[in-house]
Design brief:
single chain, alpha+beta, 4-stranded antiparallel β-sheet, 12 helices, 55% helix, 12% strand, elongated, isomerase, PrsA_foldase, cell membrane, lipoprotein
Length: 284
């Protein structure tokens, strides 16, 4: 959600740098004290943002050669951001234009594909994660504001409607996007409401609670899963560990740099010559 907002901050720098060259004398602003040329703008923008902008532009070209991002994927991600950001998304679109937002999303998706391709999960990673699940339960919930709504959801569950579908429809917190999934929780988790935790750990695997009132509203809680034998859980846990690694910004950046190091990058601008010294140029 924040990636779109952060990426858009670089828009002015990228547009300015790509629109002019250091030797361009075209006047873009006139004053009584003298004119400002495109060349002057480029030189100053390069000093303040040149390395970061060049890095993104080069990374996008290198990644696009290796990985494919479709218009359908871009549109889907934009739709997600529109839902998540609301008015902020509309403001970004109005300020920078839809084409620019699409470019930013394309870059994001390319980095994701590079991460998925290069971030590996070992058996030791999975075993360590499994060990850490001791005493925990995998929970989901549906959070609503009032008792009447909670009872309405409860009736639908008893009629056989899927917990995940109802969570997406009714739940008022961000877990709704994942069907109410809260991940693995422990009894001593201080970030959990005590009433919620007590109710959750009374449930058997697969069992769903009656509405539980906390300071946040009314919860219907489900014990989705409990720690079982390692061999039985290994496949699913490997996916969980991979997802965790993919959400680690530093791990994703390392994966991108791994791809960039293999590219033949030669920066011609003397002021930006050292931009890739800590990444791609070290592999030459």
């Amino acid at each position: 959600m924040k990636k779109m907002a952060i990426a858009a901050i670089t828009a002015t720098s990228i547009l300015a740098l790509s629109a002019c060259s250091s030797g361009d004398k075209e006047v873009i602003a006139k004053t009584d004290a003298g004119d400002v040329t495109k060349g002057e703008l480029y030189t100053n923008m390069k000093k303040t943002a040149g390395a970061s902008v060049l890095t993104q532009l080069v990374q996008e070209k290198v990644l696009a050669k290796k990985y494919k991002v479709t218009d359908k994927e871009i549109d889907k991600k934009l739709k997600e951001y529109k839902t998540q950001l609301g008015d902020q998304y509309s403001a970004l679109k109005e300020q920078y234009g839809e084409d620019y937002l699409k470019e930013q999303v394309k870059y994001e998706l390319l980095t994701q594909k590079a991460a998925e391709d290069n971030i590996k999960v070992t058996d030791d990673d999975v075993k360590e994660y499994w060990e850490g699940l001791k005493g925990k339960i995998h929970t989901s919930h549906i959070l609503v504001a009032d008792k009447d709504t909670a009872e309405e959801v409860e009736k639908k569950l008893k009629k056989g409607e899927k917990f995940e579908d109802l969570a997406k429809e009714y739940s008022t917190d961000s877990s709704a996007n994942n069907g109410g999934d809260l991940g693995w929780i422990s009894k001593d988790d201080t970030q959990l409401d005590a009433t919620f935790s007590k109710a959750a750990f009374k449930l058997k695997k697969g069992e769903v609670s009656d509405p539980v009132k906390t300071q946040f509203g009314y919860h219907i809680i489900k014990n989705t899963e409990e720690r079982g034998k390692y061999d039985d859980m290994k496949k699913d846990l490997k996916k969980d560990v991979k997802e965790q690694k993919l959400s680690d910004t530093s791990a994703v950046q390392a994966a991108v740099e791994k791809v960039i190091k293999k590219a033949d990058i030669d920066v011609k601008d003397k002021d930006l010559k050292d931009t890739f010294n800590t990444s791609s140029s070290t592999s030459k």
